[in-house]
Specification:
alpha/beta, Methyltransferase, Methionine Synthase (B12-binding Domains), Chain A, domain 1, Rossmann fold, five-stranded parallel beta sheet, binds CO-5-methoxybenzimidazolylcobamide
């Protein structure tokens, strides 16, 4: 569909006004919200993620694409979107870094997940509470400091204590986080970057 291809290009190039205009055009043409999300928004963020991994895009390009994506996604509110799963995401307690977490959240949203973003400095109890309240399928934690990674282990323990561990998958990431740390704390998944986080989430929650 031409309008979705144009929307995709507008998001990749970070053209917020164009993205807004084309999203409205797609809605006016009767394109379903889910199709706009998957074939327009998520498809664009997939390309952005690939470019980031290939060092063709850097953080500023990611952020302007994310802004355009958010503009487009915000126009879906109220529309019937058949989400592929619900993710509760946040940066762990004591940690205020949120650029990477925001990218992961945006990419997941673009890929059709309902994302509940708890922000930064999120305690294990807050993850558990939000997981319950939203009947989340996935708890996603980001940490950028070696000193705050321990909160991921504490959150896994809190989820177990609350009897939620079998109902939710846990995915972790952030610069100091590794697959071996994920194995050690019994997280279900780890991703090194935002595009891989989407792939990992899809693997953890097959549709
Ligand atoms: Co801070 N900082 N910082 N900082 N900061 C780092 C992380 C650091 C490596 C810098 C350094 O010393 N070289 C260092 C950590 C050392 C360590 O523990 N290993 C550090 C430090 C020490 C600190 C302070 C303690 C400094 C101080 O005050 N003395 C302080 C701590 C504050 C706190 O959190 N309590 C601090 C503060 C800050 C700012 C507030 C100034 C700012 C944050 C602004 C913000 O986020 N709103 C900041 C920044 C910007 C950085 C650097 C420069 C950049 C981080 C970033 O945004 N990268 C960083 C050094 C560096 O990385 N070059 C540094 C871009 C982003 C897209 O990448 O976040 O890695 P990243 O996310 C990636 C992946 O990691 C992955 O996908 C993302 C996209 O591909 N990913 C996930 C992230 N979360 C994921 C979750 C997933 C899956 C993948 O699943 C759930």
């Amino acid at each position: 569909m031409a309008v979705l291809e144009d929307l995709k290009q507008a998001i990749i190039s970070g053209n917020r006004d164009k993205a807004k205009e084309l999203t409205q055009k797609a809605l006016d043409e009767g394109v379903e919200a889910r199709t706009i999300v998957v074939d327009g928004i998520a498809a664009a963020m997939e390309v952005v993620g690939e470019k980031f991994r290939a060092n063709e895009f850097f953080v500023p390009e990611l952020l302007i694409a994310q802004r355009a994506m958010k503009e487009s996604l915000s126009m879906m509110s109220g529309a019937e979107v058949d989400y592929v799963g619900t993710v509760v995401i946040g940066t762990v307690k004591g940690d205020l870094h949120d650029i990477g977490k925001n990218l992961v959240a945006a990419m997941l949203e673009g890929a059709g997940f309902k994302v509940v973003d708890l922000g930064v400095d999120v305690s294990p109890a807050q993850f558990v509470e939000a997981g319950k309240e939203n009947s989340a399928n996935l708890v996603a934690m980001s940490a950028l400091l070696t000193t705050t990674m321990g909160s991921m282990r504490d959150t896994v323990a809190e989820l177990e204590k609350a009897g939620l561990r079998d109902a939710v998958k846990v995915m972790i990431g952030g610069a100091p986080v590794t697959q071996s740390y994920a194995d050690e704390i019994k997280a279900d998944g780890y991703a090194p970057d935002a595009a891989s986080a989407v792939e990992q989430a899809k693997q953890l929650l097959p549709v």
